[in-house]
Amino acid sequence: MTALWTSDDAARATGGQVTAPWEATSVSIDTRSLEPGALFVALKDVRDGHDFVADALARGAAAALVSRVPEGVAPDAPLLVVEDVLTGLEALAAAARARTAAKVIGVTGSVGKTSTKEMLRAILGGQGKVHAAEKSYNNHWGVPLTLARMPSDAEYAVIEIGMNHPGEISPLARLADLDAAIVTIVAPAHLEAFESVEGIAREKATIMDGLRPGGVAVLNADIETAPILQAAAEARQARILRFGTSGTEAQLLDAFLKDGQTVARARLAGPDGVAHPLLFKIGSPGRHFAMNGLAALAVATALGADMALAAGDLGRWLPYEGRGVRETIALDIVQDALTFDMIDDSYNANPASVGAALDMLAASTPVDGVGRVSHGRRIAILGDMLELGPREAELHAALASHPAMESIDLVHCVGPRSRALWEALPRARRGRWTEDSTAMAGEVHHLIDAGDIVLVKGSLGIRLARVVDAIRKLGQALPDET
């Protein structure tokens, strides 16, 4: 396998000292997933990565990036010694970016960053060699790690950039040195650290700080804070492509659900500026997926991708587990009709993403006459939305009046913050409320019936994955066909 980093290249990039020559084929920060031949980066987080260097080398790491020779490691072990490990990783990232001719796309937004990143991976995979993180590596160490892992012959790279506090996005965007930037949406999230949605928009807009002059900015035109984003893009002399429902370069005309997929009809301006009709599919239900898919198609086309090929490849994309995956669960191995569908969207939540998930549930069709209940139901199991600041009770309660709620039969709530939502629901729609996910997981066996469609949605910290696991265990294992 071709070396990603040699000791000489890494030393030049970081200014560090090499204790013995080495060649690394990958970069890792976790000994549990480390592959032989990797450069292990001894970052300090909850634990000090230096404590794991000996284990990393024993597992086959080619070398370790350290700020000192760790205890139990020989001085002549293959090490790259730098003053600060995170700074050293950032230097590797900058060098990796400088040595490639790849078109680099940055993706940020309150909702849909990872989905859009993965859509772009699928779209651009048919156009050339694509590099993107396998997980949501979007913070102060995840972005440089993703860049440091980028092969020199990459033709496209997709970098997810997130934030929890002011001032996080700009340095990461500048490190990535972007050819294009996407802002999926700006919505109430992380309000513990920001005074308003406008403050969040100003932070998201700093992704333009890393945009090369004349680069492409793909912006959501349907949000109230769109002028903040557009002003930042104009300041960088960007080519601006707006996506939304009207009067935009990428216009979503219609989106409807069919056979568990989303079929979208749009108009998209090509490189010549002429709007072309576009029909595309998403392999998962949800209008929000169609909107993010349109943004991904817009930036890919602006960077020279073939529009028809890109649309076809987008149709093969599926969301990650916990991010809107829909699955059918069989309650009986003999009676094929005794099934229900679960939408697992348990990875994250804020008011905008919960609203989108409720829209998706409302547009889904349950099956009548197959269960104990006479009709199939749309059921939502909603957990707390975290980091919403002093307005958290108000924002939870407001979900009760979301338009999609009119089409939802029952809402079960999990967590202390979601109590405000539960109390705001009309009694006919109000299901169970539990303090935590363990209690709800213990109740799901009598909350769900054949024919139902069940949405599970909440912030990661409320641990609704326990509820998802409990729901899956209601299913019957199918017989082995071999």
TrEMBL record:
<keyword id="KW-0573">Peptidoglycan synthesis</keyword>
<dbReference type="GO" id="GO:0008766">
    <property type="term" value="F:UDP-N-acetylmuramoylalanyl-D-glutamyl-2,6-diaminopimelate-D-alanyl-D-alanine ligase activity"/>
</dbReference>
<dbReference type="InterPro" id="IPR036565">
    <property type="entry name" value="Mur-like_cat_sf"/>
</dbReference>
<dbReference type="InterPro" id="IPR013221">
    <property type="entry name" value="Mur_ligase_cen"/>
</dbReference>
<keyword id="KW-0133">Cell shape</keyword>
<feature type="binding site">
    <location>
        <begin position="109"/>
        <end position="115"/>
    </location>
    <ligand>
        <name>ATP</name>
    </ligand>
</feature>
<comment type="function">
    <text>Involved in cell wall formation. Catalyzes the final step in the synthesis of UDP-N-acetylmuramoyl-pentapeptide, the precursor of murein.</text>
</comment>
<dbReference type="GO" id="GO:0008360">
    <property type="term" value="P:regulation of cell shape"/>
</dbReference>
<dbReference type="GO" id="GO:0051301">
    <property type="term" value="P:cell division"/>
</dbReference>
<keyword id="KW-0961">Cell wall biogenesis/degradation</keyword>
<dbReference type="InterPro" id="IPR036615">
    <property type="entry name" value="Mur_ligase_C_dom_sf"/>
</dbReference>
<comment type="similarity">
    <text>Belongs to the MurCDEF family. MurF subfamily.</text>
</comment>
<dbReference type="InterPro" id="IPR000713">
    <property type="entry name" value="Mur_ligase_N"/>
</dbReference>
<dbReference type="InterPro" id="IPR035911">
    <property type="entry name" value="MurE/MurF_N"/>
</dbReference>
<dbReference type="GO" id="GO:0005524">
    <property type="term" value="F:ATP binding"/>
</dbReference>
<keyword id="KW-0132">Cell division</keyword>
<feature type="domain" description="Mur ligase C-terminal">
    <location>
        <begin position="334"/>
        <end position="459"/>
    </location>
</feature>
<dbReference type="GO" id="GO:0009252">
    <property type="term" value="P:peptidoglycan biosynthetic process"/>
</dbReference>
<dbReference type="Pfam" id="PF02875">
    <property type="entry name" value="Mur_ligase_C"/>
</dbReference>
<keyword id="KW-0547">Nucleotide-binding</keyword>
<dbReference type="InterPro" id="IPR004101">
    <property type="entry name" value="Mur_ligase_C"/>
</dbReference>
<keyword id="KW-0436">Ligase</keyword>
<dbReference type="Pfam" id="PF01225">
    <property type="entry name" value="Mur_ligase"/>
</dbReference>
<keyword id="KW-0067">ATP-binding</keyword>
<keyword id="KW-0131">Cell cycle</keyword>
<feature type="domain" description="Mur ligase N-terminal catalytic">
    <location>
        <begin position="25"/>
        <end position="95"/>
    </location>
</feature>
<protein>
    <recommendedName>
        <fullName>UDP-N-acetylmuramoyl-tripeptide--D-alanyl-D-alanine ligase</fullName>
        <ecNumber>6.3.2.10</ecNumber>
    </recommendedName>
</protein>
<comment type="pathway">
    <text>Cell wall biogenesis; peptidoglycan biosynthesis.</text>
</comment>
<dbReference type="InterPro" id="IPR051046">
    <property type="entry name" value="MurCDEF_CellWall_CoF430Synth"/>
</dbReference>
<dbReference type="GO" id="GO:0005737">
    <property type="term" value="C:cytoplasm"/>
</dbReference>
<dbReference type="InterPro" id="IPR005863">
    <property type="entry name" value="UDP-N-AcMur_synth"/>
</dbReference>
<dbReference type="GO" id="GO:0047480">
    <property type="term" value="F:UDP-N-acetylmuramoyl-tripeptide-D-alanyl-D-alanine ligase activity"/>
</dbReference>
<dbReference type="Pfam" id="PF08245">
    <property type="entry name" value="Mur_ligase_M"/>
</dbReference>
<dbReference type="GO" id="GO:0071555">
    <property type="term" value="P:cell wall organization"/>
</dbReference>
<feature type="domain" description="Mur ligase central">
    <location>
        <begin position="107"/>
        <end position="300"/>
    </location>
</feature>
<keyword id="KW-0963">Cytoplasm</keyword>
